[in-house]
């Protein structure tokens, strides 16, 4: 018998099958046994099929095989155990528990049954039941210690969980899955260094012990590496879990590119083969932005628990609110009320509810946020008093705990402050936004995010440039060695603040630094648009002050005279606003532009017309309806050039 290059000779079938199993070619074994006909329904055939289906991670098929074996030889308890194990892996928890009850009195399988039963109850989020079963198991083993650690972790007792996982590694030797649990506990304790160390060890061992998984192959081949599927060795190696945790650490630190690189280190798989956690993290780090990943998050949400990571619900709501898709967020909340109480903390629900309410009633939202802010401010004052009290003692552990509690409360308070300021900002009430920042300065004045946004609020008022610069300057000084790591908006606003407070030399010096740093980075193959943005903002400022000659020259310089490299919808928006302002002034005969300057603008628009003929002129959000034939920069530039030509001819008549 010949099957896909596998020769099954009479008398050697069993040897061939077991050699294939030894080589972990489970799919080939399954095909061979099925093609053997009636032999596939024998005890040996079903047992081998069940084993191979299980290790190929086709758990429902494995469960079917073991169910048939249980009917064929009902007195063999191990088949019932394998049946329950397959049902558990398939997520069919209730049936798995029923099968386990049938062999609960088997002394030989007692410990294994208790271990599986506690795992099923834990996965079903019946933590009390899992603890009850865990109390019946043998103590001191690596497996029991690991499961104790998991329950402690679930109860947010991370210090005790770390102790259990450490002991489990000491008792049973290195186990990548236990090491991952330990890394995760350190991560939840905000001990980033320890978490990174354990994930690095898991990855190093995985690369050394499992070269067949192709770890890092996606980066080496620009994402075109051949899929390795989902072999059982991948699950047991802890590679997927470790790299996902590394990505989460980088993402939380704001290093989205580094998080994306960590996910690219994963063994290559097709999107349909990805596990839910990887799919979730890829959605958050999508190169086109989190909104582009909403489809993946919505897919996971539809799967429901236990397949759907519990963070999915909160993240999809936060992304919707961040990108002002409030109606979508409201619909998701209404459709998944059961998940609201299960996966959202009271704090997060109240914050999201206020943000959504703000679309209909700013007053109601402000009232909700005010109540939440008052509660958190009271808690912060109480915790601050406790920190001062503990400082007078010599108990360093108590001091660390008190400081951590204060920092955790501050993390909750800051988003509420930002939300309240945002409501005023949205309505162009920058004085009201400043008032909110002043009221929260007691707790947040040293926070870099708070200081950054406080600077923006002062800048937007138009008469507080000096105060705004005082907030921006420390940010720039802090990154003096790498000015490109500073937001382009901060550099542009600081430059404008210098100009508006007659500090032109400082503004020029800042622009020279940015230009020099950008050239250096460009020589290293990295593209930055900081100088472009600074020049756009400065040019727009001068245009707003009716100095179109200098302002438009800055804008043309920012876009390399419309050469195309920096000409896209975002930058074009600033260009056409300034050009339209010029045209409006010329039409009202409030502005007269010298003929040479008109010719320069004409040339600039002609260049934009040529280089932007296929570039979309407008930015569309996820909720906008994109026209079938959207306008391009080239078409708009041509229309603006025609208007300028007509107005210039009118003035010259």
> Radius of gyration in whole Å, from Cα?
32 Å
Parts with pLDDT < 50 across at least 5 consecutive residues: 1-5
Approximate shape: globular
- Note the gap between the termini: 96 Å
Report the total helices: 34
Topology, number of strands: 2
Classification by helices and strands: mainly alpha
Content of β-strand: under 5%
Strands of the largest sheet, in order across it? 1-2
The overall average pLDDT, rounded, is 88
Bin the helical content: over 70%
Regarding quaternary structure, what we see is: single chain
**Biggest β-sheet strands, sense, barrel:** 2 strands, antiparallel
Produce the secondary structure layout:
Elements: E1 2-3, E2 6-7, H1 13-22, H2 26-35, H3 43-55, H4 59-72, H5 77-89, H6 93-101, H7 110-123, H8 127-134, H9 142-154, H10 158-172, H11 176-188, H12 192-209, H13 217-220, H14 232-237, H15 239-252, H16 256-264, H17 276-284, H18 294-303, H19 311-322, H20 326-335, H21 337-343, H22 346-357, H23 362-391, H24 396-426, H25 430-444, H26 448-460, H27 465-478, H28 488-500, H29 504-523, H30 530-544, H31 548-558, H32 569-587, H33 595-611, H34 633-652
Antiparallel strand pairs: 1-2
Helix pairs in contact: 2-3, 3-4, 4-5, 5-6, 6-7, 7-8, 7-9, 8-9, 9-10, 10-11, 11-12, 11-15, 12-15, 15-16, 17-18, 18-19, 19-20, 19-22, 22-23, 23-24, 24-25, 25-26, 26-27, 27-28, 28-29, 28-30, 30-31, 30-32, 31-33, 32-34, 33-34
